[in-house]
Amino acid sequence: MRLKISLLKEPKHQELVSCVGWTTAEELYSCSDDHQIVKWNLLTGETSQIVKLPDDIYPIDLHWFPKSLGVKKQTQAEIFVLTSSDGKFHLISKLGRVEKSVEAHCGAVLAGRWNYEGTALVTVGEDGQIKIWSKTGMLRSTLAHQGTPVYSVAWGPDSEKVLYTAGKQLIIKPLQPNAKILQWKAHDGIILKVDWNSVNDLILSAGEDCKYKVWDSYGRPLYSSQPHEHPITSVAWAPDGELFAVGSFHTLRLCDKTGWSYALEKPNTGSIFNIAWSIDGTQIAGACGNGHVVFAHVVEQRWEWKNFQVTLTKRRTMQVRNVLNDAVDLLEFRDRVIKASLNYAHLVVSTSLQCYVFSTKNWNTPLIFDLKEGTVSLILQAERHFLLVDGGGIYLYSYEGRFLSSPKFPGMRTDILNAQTVSLSNDTIAIKDKADEKIIFLFEASTGKPMGDGKFLSHKNEVLEIALDQKGLTNDRKIAFIDKNRDLYITSVKRFGKEEQIIKLGTMVHTLAWSDTCNILCGLQDTRFTVWYYPNTVYVDRDILPKTLYERDASEFSKNPHIVSFVGNQVTIRRADGSLVHISISPYPAILHEYEQTMWACLAAMAVANRDMTTAEIAYAAIGEIDKVQYINSIKNLPSKESKMAHILMFSGNIQEAETVLLQAGLVYQAIQININLYNWERALELAVKYKTHVDTVLAYRQKFLETFGKQETNKRYLQYAEGLQIDWEKIKAKIEMEITKERERSSGSQPTKSTGLKH
């Protein structure tokens, strides 16, 4: 990934540019010490002066009023706040009219920021005061007052806290009075800029010590850069929280959210005092010390799946490379590409107006449909369908482009959803609640309605990351999640009245992923990489869970690694320095998952072949062959081992051998009976006549069989032996009972003389 820089030959401003802000993805406003506010149209390349401010107003910071969340009509911002060196902030319309000027601070107003809902404005100044104002510019409160200038300020994701600078310190202060304040030393020099992202909840800071740093919302350090040559004058998060940009003297840097650098550019800009990301997160604008406004497009993003590699080469062009045969396809789009995802043999691309769905089998004919709202912030894929998240909602589509559902819940904010807080499987959508972070909402994918009895999943602690397993039946669907204590839990998705168990799988887990081909889970624990080959073991026998794990040392991945993907038996991990490490795990457990039915069937056949009917019974039960399980059960209850052997042979279809075993053992009645059971009437009568026993039994069963089907006897042999014979069922039953008793006694008493019995 890199930045494609565009810079005009001659600057449009005469003095340094102090601040920039986007209204749409193609329109930008810039303010300068030359008192001009200039509008830039990136589609036409035109610039126009909106207004020339009075000579005593030197602009310092600009922030557009946020678009109404979830309202599709307002596609662009209409008013912005401009802070200036004269101690005032000004509310200025899109057309350049100053709607209101408010005396705010003694000395310059160094920064001003709307909260996410647009209900409040925070300003900070050289006088060390932090003030909260209403939407119309009425003072609500002075949040804090300190002795040093406050250079930068940012709202917390929930608009309930404010982050601001105090010399070398960072301070997070909640709006509620008497709430606990968090303060820590962040830099060795004065902190010049901060930013706090609403999606990933991470904080950026930049200082005169020439470093930029990444923090979590508890003030714990996640990344610290090497010192640069010059102070870091600006930092800014991309809207989705996956990237951030850093500005310094003649320097523009693109970084991953974990801190490592994708690209470093050295444009001729002077110091970059302010950075703004476009609404769709595809480009950056920088306010430069030499009067320029620098624009940079994020290009050469890369997506990989199995043997395919897709690269965004230009704003509207992708290159697909099949690494097996080096075949290359070029994909052209009408509008600029905003988001893309490659998984499950499909590439899903969202542009500013449309969504394209490509199959990896055919890159020439994508399926295209129009988007409800342009800016897609997240694409998630499952085997059967994919999910799009934009400012208006969450939408599920099939790979044929058919709209399936749009789940909703109270207080839903789609602008803060990411891959850690939303998960998708073939039948389920899981979304972590932002208002109460202990709650996970579960929806049926096909309808968008809440799962089961409509109850959400509630945990005792705040949840950080969620992931649904991808294979198996809906009733067996499981969700794994990591809570704020870094404990990993698993529970069932289907919830009907009864409280499902939430079971702990591991501790100190930082990142997790399910395999896309079977329900195997992997995670990075404190010092090791762990694979749970069968996580459901915790529901069956927790004692053997350690025996179902694969563990290896994770020190090679350094600090804060992240699992990127788990495809087949290959896990891809990104280290803190940005390098990718590929780990192959044993393929055999995955094969066991995939071919479970096949393996049970093979085991059943092997068990019968080796006369192990106990194992055979279990194996047949596993593949749902109930009639065979019942037959095996009846075999186990037979009195003699010769009878058992004969029935096992019959089970395998060896009727002749079964009969021979019984006759050799002197079990003539049993030999006759198996022929009766198989409706082998000719042979049954032949044996009865030959051994002069149970002729009446054979005739009785034959008569009963014919009566059942309403038929008359036509067989000459049966007619011959039935002549003048009266069937007495009481007598026949007594004879059969006697045969069984005789066999039982014989088998219990004939163990030592086994050979004689067979000879006889």
- Continuous helix count: 13
- The radius of gyration computed from the alpha-carbon positions, rounded to a whole number of angstroms, is 38 Å
Briefly note the structural class of the backbone.
alpha+beta
Which whole number gives the mean pLDDT? 89
Task: Please give the largest β-sheet.
Answer: 4 strands, antiparallel
Shape descriptor:
elongated
Strand content: 35-45%
Order the strands across the largest sheet as they lie in space.
Answer: 1-28-27-26
**What gap, in angstroms, lies between the N and C termini?**
88 Å
Query: What's the number of extended β-strand segments?
Result: 55
User: Segments where pLDDT lies below 50 for 5+ residues?
Assistant: 69-75, 750-760
Helix content: 10-25%
Protein name: Intraflagellar transport protein 80 homolog isoform X2
Keywords: Cell projection, Cilium, WD repeat
InterPro entries: Beta-prop_IFT80_2nd, TPR_IFT80_172_dom, WD40/YVTN_repeat-like_dom_sf, WD40_repeat_dom_sf, WD40_rpt
Domain IFT80 second beta-propeller: 300-588
In short:
By secondary structure, this protein is of the alpha+beta class. The protein contains 13 helices and 55 strands. This is Intraflagellar transport protein 80 homolog isoform X2.
